[in-house]
Amino acid sequence: MINTITDVLGWSFMLAGSAFFVTAALGLLRFPDLYSRLHAVTKTDTLGLGLLALGLALLDPSWRSCLILLLVWMLVMASGAVNCQLLARFNLEQEEGRHGGDGHQTGESDDA
Amino acid sequence: MTPELLPDLTLSLLLLIMAWGALYAPQRSDAMTLFIAFGVVVALIWARLDAPDLALAEAAIGAGLTGVLLMHAARALPDELHQDYRTASYWGALGFTVVASLMFLVHLLYDDSLFNAGLLDTESDLTPRLRTLADAAVPESGVEHPVTAVLLNFRAWDTLLELLVLLFALGGLRQLFPSGQSDDSATTASWPESMTLMSAWTRVLAPLLVVTGGYLLWRGSSAPGGAFQAGSLLAAAAVILRLTGLLPPLRWSSLWLRLSVVAGALFFLAVAAATAIWGDGWLTYPGAYSGLLIISIEIFATLSIAITLSLLVIGEQEDLRS
């Protein structure tokens, strides 16, 4: 009985997580500019991956795999947040440089 | 038709689309991004094919380091080369993708008949036989993981030559830089302000990479991992530290650097020569010491691979010629 409850819970968490990834993809395609796209991707990635990890942890509830999943989630969450800030700040600096004359002339286009 | 076929087919189709995009995207930056995604998909496919060693190596080298190499190279290009470098014949490429997918599907559907006709009987009897042979010999190899046993014992000669290939690649790269003193003006790029965040994040990431690399190296004897995977992770750490300016130039004039570059190949060659002269033959390890020898070779090889890969990816005038 316990098994079936955790199974159902685990699978529904994973389904909900996947739904977040679908919305992230939708936002990436439909939102107008870099900032709102970044918002869509990073926020839903964090939550979606968290739900996936939670669901997987419920399906395989051993200490080892739970800890590994938690670490993976934390690493992806941190790198997602940092990369979002990096892309956004870099883009902002470039826009300011373009509008305000000779700001920082970096001339890079490899931020993809 | 098993349920597992669905993700596999999706991955295969994704791979073809990525390959097409990487070749024919009109913007260079798009093509580079798609090439990195292509590497990630290849890594996933290796993982699905039950080859985690290859998946790790592909993710670290094919997607990670090659991606940095491409972007680093693109930054150095003059601006006029950035735009529209190709007005591709999309239809030819699309046709190629469609034909390739169709051939794959046909192969999948008529699998058995092709095998029966004797056209594609390569893997059906070859792979299991090699696998049984390798698995039977693993206990004598000195390590528990069959891939490591093959790479560093049964086919150690191949791995030694791979290390020499890396060495030759670095030698070739050095020829691209003129000798003499470097001019500092070319190498001091003006970083954007957002770089402070990047360097802060690098300070967190680099120790993690070093720990993971060491873990992969140590784990290599009993589980997926090993010198190439560990070396590429260490190289990744060196590359991000160097790119954010936290690491001084890896000066070629330093004896330690040159020693580290050749350490793997030198130690491997020394072991090979020693076994040839005093032992049972070229690269035939004495049974009792084979485990120790393999892990020592891997440690030296990791060092060489890490330094060589980082020089190959971010080596500049001041790294390679001063």
UniProtKB/TrEMBL annotation, chain A:
The keyword Transmembrane applies. InterPro entries: PhaG_MnhG_YufB (IPR005133). It holds the Pfam family PhaG_MnhG_YufB. The keyword Membrane applies. GO terms for molecular function: sodium:proton antiporter activity. Keywords: Membrane, Transmembrane, Transmembrane helix. The chain crosses the membrane at residues 12-32, 67-88. This is Na+/H+ antiporter subunit. The lineage of its organism: unclassified sequences, metagenomes, ecological metagenomes.
Automatic annotation (TrEMBL), chain B:
Residues 13-78 form the MrpA C-terminal/MbhD domain. InterPro entries: CPA3_antiporter_subunitB, MnhB, MrpA_C/MbhD. The chain crosses the membrane at residues 6-25, 32-49, 55-77, 89-110, 160-177, 198-218, 224-243, 255-279, 291-314. The keyword Transmembrane applies. It is found in: Cell membrane. It is a multi-pass membrane protein. Residues 199-313 form the Na+/H+ antiporter MnhB subunit-related protein domain. The keyword Transmembrane helix applies. One of its GO terms (cellular component) is plasma membrane. This is Na+/H+ antiporter MnhB subunit-related protein domain-containing protein. Keywords: Cell membrane, Membrane, Transmembrane, Transmembrane helix. Coiled coil: none annotated.
